[in-house]
Amino acid sequence: MKLIPIYTEIIKDRQNHTIFIDEKTRYTYKAFHKEPSQSFYWIGFFSLLFFMRGIQQLNLTFSNYITFGLIIAVIVLGSISGKYYYKKFTYEEVREIYLTESMIEDYVEKGKKVFKLEMWIAAICLIGFLFSIILFFFTSSLVVLIFSFFALVFFNIFVYRLPKERIKLYKNP
Length: 173
Fold this sequence. Notes:
The chain is α+β, with helices and mostly antiparallel strands. Helices cover 64% and strands 15% of the residues.
């Protein structure tokens, strides 16, 4: 079963959700978004900030082999982490809902705006990742390497929301 997100509703102070369609059967599904707790967010934010400030002045010189090895490690770990976070922390239980074909077409039309936004965010994350990897190659700064890791994780999260079937869905009128 290949689920394609066709519409995402994001409204502040409400339970947000995404509507999916099964590519083969045309059945529709709804999944509510998981809401991270504010304490988890702030603890993670300040822990990362404290860690980044601690290694800010740490510039190590690496041989080219180690630099390429670190870049490959970031790519592998970032890809695995992005897939894990998307599957584990994005949606609650997916439930089947019953929509008519005209309702599905309406949701597809409404979903174009979110689709374009997600494409832009994915592109910005990819550009940030590529820029920071190039910067790391020249500076050997661990802060830049960690930033590139997070940019790749966010890029992968958005790529999983943009399967090629969804792209085809919005390209065809």
